[in-house]
Amino acid sequence: MTDECLSCSGEVNYLGCDLTEAELTSLRKFSASFEIKKKKTFILEGDPQDYYYQIFSGVAGTYNYFPDGKRIITEILFAGDFIGPQPGDRYPFTAESLQTVFLCRFEKKKMDQLIARSPNLKDKINMFQQNAINKARTHLLTISHKAPLERVASFLLFICGNIEGSGQNFLIPMGRQEIGDYLGLSSETVSRNMTDLSAQGIIAMETPSLVSICDPAQLYQLVYGDQAMAGQEFAGFQPKLSG
Questions:
Q1: Of 173, 16, 193, 19, which is closest to residue 100 (Cα–Cα)?
Q2: Quick one: which of 66, 119, 197, 214 is 20 to 30 A from 150 by CA?
């Protein structure tokens, strides 16, 4: 699994892409692969930041708790996503598998030493960090400026664009409470808006988790508002659906 995690894919950008064989050889010396079963924690907030991680397959999430005990999911991680350098020397979040996850783990100290002498690896890490920042910015705008129905529509487009499905269907890797924790909504509000989207014929739900987007253009219209923008975005809509 470790060699696969450090290899390149036509669809997923892994850490090993574009590195020299010497750099890959060094990287393999302090990396290891793990299977994390569904709903298992692999990072605890406040623990020493001893490792970096990259998701090879499956879906994971990071989260924090408010003082009142309410949880907020801050990021959803898919194949290729990288958990890299964080401010300070301790993890600022908890990370948990939302599905069974295969991941690669890299020793931080040795990785930092390799980054210092490898421009290629430094560029890769910077790219992963920038991608994470961009994703966080988009998510913040979604939950701070969009109505509940628009948030749920945005979430469905986000999941469909990042997870493989079968035919026209895809499985949402989270329950309604977890979706609410990610979108800043109650589980009841999530369920109500999913039902509304289904009643409008925009999506279909065979089960609470198995979803088909029946009218992607209308879903984009809900998210982006302006019809011209919706059409422009729809033209580039290529979810990872197989069939």
A1: 173
A2: 66
